[in-house]
Amino acid sequence: MRRRSRTICLSLAFITIFLHLFLALVSLSTYHQPCDHSLPPKTTFVRDLARTNHTAVGIRDVAEPPAGNAKKDPEGHPSVWPPLDAKRAESLESDLSKLEALFDHPLYNVPSPPVPEDDWLLKVKVSSRQDGYEDIQWNRSTDSHPPWLRFHLGISRWQLYPHHDPNMEALTQQLAIMALLCTCVSVCRALCCYGNALCAVSLVQKSGGTQLKLVMSFPNYGRAMVKPMRQERDDETNYNLYYFSDFERHNAEIAAFHLDRILGYRRVPPVVGRLVDVVKEIKDVTTDRKLARTFFNSPVGNVCFYGQCSYYCSTEHAVCGRPRNLEASLAVMLPDLSLATRRSWRSPWRRSYSRSKLAKWETEADYCSTVKKTSPYNKGTRLVDFMDMVILDFLMSNMDRHHYETFEKFNNNTFLLHLDNGRSFGRHSKDEPSILAPLEQCCSCIHFKKWNLCSSELERIRLSTWLRLQLLSSPQYRLSDVMRASLSHDPLHRVAPLLSEPHLTALDRRLKTVLETVSRCQKHQSKDGGGDEVIFDDLARLKDIFTPAG
């Protein structure tokens, strides 16, 4: 019996060793396979994107929203929309032609001097491998860099990315089609990169903020900020809610990126919408124990979670799939703060965030004169940069701009980052004129000029911004049309339009208000012989702007 037991034990030991060696060989052979998804062939013309839509499960045709009883594919995603009728297809073709013509317009292709070496935010520095990540084989050649790294290396003193950025298509498509499935145990972690998919190494809840946000990390060191769908796209913000109690909307983040690009700012990081599987792509990959404890099944069988945050993180305000599929926005994260520190600035026109108190700018008529005497608004381009942000916020009805950020490397001589736009596009039936208070007050303060309350050297709005706004108000480049066309490229467009028609109509109405406000300012100042002071001629001074003094 002892000999027989010894023989059995030895046999089991040899079998166990053999299986471990076999598993190790398979893991090693798989580990060195690249995890980047092979992207679809590059689209040549913008119009071609009207006929295709990049999604998490491939490339599908663009079509109308599915009916309430629309069928779903085996993975639970809504099926392809029925083909567009001839009239709507022709309208979309027309809008896409307008968008293509807009981006080819000279105002969007102003020649600029080469970027000085010191005006790049980052430089390549190859580091060693970390646990859970693939071996880095990058060098100074951009061909070896993943799209997110090319985006980081393209950030300069004056913009996040250039107008004709060849990397933008690859970056947004990778966000749209990347697979986040990774449920392997540690010994088999290398097997997470199956096929050509890019899997998540980890998912955690982002610390800080008032509402639920997630951060996904990937084997090639890329990261994305995820904001889940909280309410239906057609739902308007309740009029009884204060601005600081509003939900953050995933489609608002997507729309803000497209609007910022159409305005020619390029100060919002790229954002893409997609459907995610709450179980496979969030619950199974999270390394955040606090987040993992908040998952539950609703009474109707939907998978829900709520995380931990200041507002709306409870079972009463849970984020739920249908039953597991969830719409979300994925935004490319900016370089880590250890590589590129950012400074947070309190907005001079910040709201009180109180139900009873008013902010200082709401009670002082000459408030702008005080701001203009205060650094950094008393010199450089900071004030006109701020006015650009004010115009963006008014167009998308964002009342939540309490702070903004800049990259510390460039000191005060740089652009403003337009981050955190989730509380935009809440109401289409009502405009919020108080958002334009900075533009109104800094114009009206000319009446106090004889008391030296306003500086005659500080203009209110960029010439390039003013001309683009006028361009977008013309029928051949109408803002609502080019916005509709731009949003049709997003993967979530196959589920439903990201902005409803009333929201698009509101953009045209608000643009008209901005133009009337600036024109009224010019007329007021013309009476005092200072009409030219309204416009900051950045086109003529472009060379000086790109060569910062001091």
TrEMBL record:
Any one Gene Ontology BP term = enamel mineralization
Transport found in the keyword field: no
Q: Active site located where? A: 400
Instruction: Report the GO terms under cellular component.
Output: Golgi apparatus
Give the UniProt keywords, A-Z: ATP-binding, Disulfide bond, Glycoprotein, Golgi apparatus, Manganese, Metal-binding, Nucleotide-binding
- Gene Ontology terms, MF aspect: ATP binding; metal ion binding; phosphotransferase activity, alcohol group as acceptor
**Binding sites annotated in the UniProt record for ATP:** 211, 227, 248, 331-334, 405, 420
Region annotation Disordered: residue ranges?
58-83
Hey, which family's this protein in? Belongs to the FAM20 family.
Q: What protein does this entry describe? A: Extracellular serine/threonine protein kinase FAM20C-like
Species, as recorded: Echeneis naucrates (Live sharksucker)
